[in-house]
Amino acid sequence: MIPKNFGFWLTIPLKTAIIFVMFRRHDAWYRSIWRVFSRFIPWFVPGIGVKRWFLVLLAGITLIGTGLAIFLLDMYRSAPDTWWLPIISFISLRFLTRPWRILIFVGIGFGLIGLGIWRLNRSLLVPFLRPGQRLVDQVTDYRRRERGPQIVAIGGGHGIATVLRGLKGYTNNLTAVVSVADDGGSSGELRRSLGILPPGDIRNCLAALSDEEALLTQLFQYRFGEDTGLGGHSFGNLFISALSDITGSFEKAIAESGRALSVHGQVLPATLHNVRLVADVQLPNAQTEVRVEGESQIPQTAGRVCRVWLEPDNASAFPPVIQAVLAADMIVIGPGSLYTSILPNILVGDLLDAIRSSRALKIFISNVSTQQGETDMYTSGDHIRTLEELVGSELVEVIICNSWYDGKLENGMQWVRVDEALERDSRLYLSDLADHRQPGHHDAVKLAQVLMDLYNERTGPIVKEQATQ
User: How many CB atoms lie within 10 A of CB 159?
Assistant: First the structure.
């Protein structure tokens, strides 16, 4: 016979241990117990989409356990008084009071469920885990970026790649819209020989959006030597050109390239028409204007660009671009070459109309430095005035300009400074946006932080921790 007070004496060590842990919080035992529980607490943070399935799993296990408990209870009550009955009583903890039995069994059950889910997830997701990061941190970060704002970045060259490189840390819902007027270098040669749209800017954006950017940037920007028979082409351009031939269309090639490179977001050409950029350039020390045809020829012509346009001038925008612009929460124009990267996108009539109609926050990012042969001696005010003289005033709501001019620039480049006229513009937002290690270029992290602060200020209060970083 089991004494009536047996359960009381048996639970004394357990109660003592609980009290010991509660009052000795800095003890090694407490730290060990807390280390175990801290591994599971992040999984219950709101928004990562785990708790609902944990509850479904728990409900299923509970139903199975209830059925099994009914079976064991019925067998226990109907079983004869044999030698194994005390063993069952001991295993079922019948010598304890009912609340303690419930607490112990439920605790053991939750522990086993948590351990099983944790080990199962690690076994299934080992091929996809990044070294040095916890699984829960990766899931939380992915869910946060999945719910991020819809952002459309319009531009070209390295400028739009910098914007994408910074913003991909905040949202997966990115759309890069790039010009297809490039006719120089490897892109121009492939355009003439294969009859495809120039893949250069698209290549840069795909590399910037990829999770493995460091390696892919080196791979996509790698150029074969002239003596290899590949004519100095970059690997990225050849990759997109080959996919274009395999899939049968340029737009499908871009989509498949994004899937192959695990890109979060999309890169879209402004138009699928074979357009050409044309400009009127005023020669230096003369009143004469010359007409320059071809995007690559404009920076090579000495003088000041007066006007630019596309031929044909009625090229329609790529329909997915219109959809992305109309659904956007924020539209970012620039940075990039003003006349040869930014304006060729805005000059597509349907795209310009969509930007005007969109209810998104529209932001223009001025360049940090001038581009030789294209925007020599330009100020930030010259950039925005050139844009709005061509497409109409008040196209954007915010103008972001750099305020740091201390670094030494490359030969032929000058800092793009804010002039007095722009200082009086209420849309101006000044901040240190330059990369101090590479003067003349934007810092992707700083630029993305400013963009997200401006977006959050419009949709809600800025988070202090982010705003003060």
Answer: 24
Q: Which residues, in sequence order, are CB contacts of 369 under 8 Å at separation 6+?
A: 409, 413, 414, 415, 416, 439, 440, 441
Q: What is the CATH number of domain 149-179+270-467?
A: 3.40.50.10680
| pLDDT value of position 182 | 83
Domain ranges of the chain: 39-144, 149-179+270-467
**Interior angle at CA 172, CA 166 and CA 176, nearest 5:** 70
Q: Which tokens in the block code for residue 452? A: 């997200």
Q: Are 311 and 158 in contact (CB under 8 A)?
A: no
Strand partners, 308: 279
pLDDT of residue 465: 38
User: DSSP class of residue 263?
Assistant: B
* Cβ proximity of 364 and 327 under 8 Å: no
Tell me which amino acid residue 426 is: S
Element of type H or E holding 278: strand 276-282
Query: Are 370 and 376 in contact, with CB atoms under 8 Å apart?
Result: yes
- Within 10 angstroms of residue 90's Cβ, the number of other Cβ atoms is 11
| Cβ(374)–Cβ(366) below 8 Å | no
Output DSSP code: residue 366: -
| pLDDT confidence of residue 186 | 72
The series of mean pLDDT values per 10 residues for the chain, 469 residues long, is: 48 54 54 61 64 77 80 67 63 73 79 76 66 70 85 91 93 93 76 79 87 70 70 80 87 85 88 91 84 87 88 92 96 92 92 94 95 89 91 88 89 89 92 91 94 84 42
Find out whether the peptide bond into 3 is cis, omega within 30 degrees of 0: no
> Which two tokens mark 52?
């609902």
Distance of CA 380 to the CA centre of its chain: 28
Residue-level pLDDT at 114: 74
